[in-house]
User: Fold this.
Amino acid sequence: MQLLDSIKQKAKSQKKTVVLPEALEERTLQAADIILSEGIADIILLGNPSSIEELAGKHGLGSVSGAKIIDPAAFDEKEFYADMLFELRQHKGLTREEALTLVEDPLYLATLLIKNGAADGEVAGAMNATGDVLRPAFQVVKTLPGISVVSGAFIMILEDKQWGDDGIIVFADCAVHPDPDAKELAEIAVMTARTTRAIVGIEPRVAMLSFSTKGSAKHPMVDKVVEATRIAREKEPGLLIDGDLQADAAIVEAIGRKKAPGSSIAGKANVLVFPSLESGNIGYKLVQRLAGAEAVGPVLQGMAAPINDLSRGCSVDDIVNLVAITVNQAAGK
Assistant:
């Protein structure tokens, strides 16, 4: 896929470090071997060194020797990172003894390495549930200044090149936040625009979707989208964004001209922001299945550093691609 190849090429020039806390998971180790051999990123593997080396040898993964390997249970900086975690979480009742235990959890240590600047991002989830991956991320890395909500974007790659930018449209939020209010929806729009620039490399044209176009329907759900559009414009002046727009008015030029004359976005959108997780998740799955689109993601956005969650059914290629995306997020934040 041309876009994914471009993302990998861009990652190679960024010289970023990604931590993989699931180093004893076979697909993760195979992906690390590819990432290192192709120069996509520097890699930190968390796990028992002997076990990692044994698994790497079993599969002939010679490039893994180029990774930095940290054993959370025997880390010589364990006390330092326990102190860091204690300082961050003592107001929530965390004791130092509990911090010492948590630092041995690779998912916690990964986020602490990022917080301390030893890594630029994290990819996990091949063997851990989303909640387990995101819990330490929220506690340690937290969200970007001015952003209160984390969301998930999908890069939709369609064979029909008439849509979006040469067949590429970014959808959000399709993965995380069920029912954003107007302020949260505005944050999702701003972050999705940034994701589009950093990863896809195109200038975002953001459509705030609704069942109404320019007030054609009256309802509090429409009001939320209109208000979110106003807030997003305030948060990021110069952002090309418009709403409320129905989906056809957002992506079909003739309909956009008819329903929203004068709009700079109608009929030309390459970013679609859905009013709720329900509509976003349904929308991306319909496009994926009915139009045969490739859905790349979810790309988590809104964290102070890129931390991305895999499906437990992911492939080796999925891990490689998400590491490359993580590198580009780190470079563009």
Remarks:
- Residues 182-200 form the longest helix (19 residues).
- The CA atoms of residues 53 and 296 lie 31 Å apart.
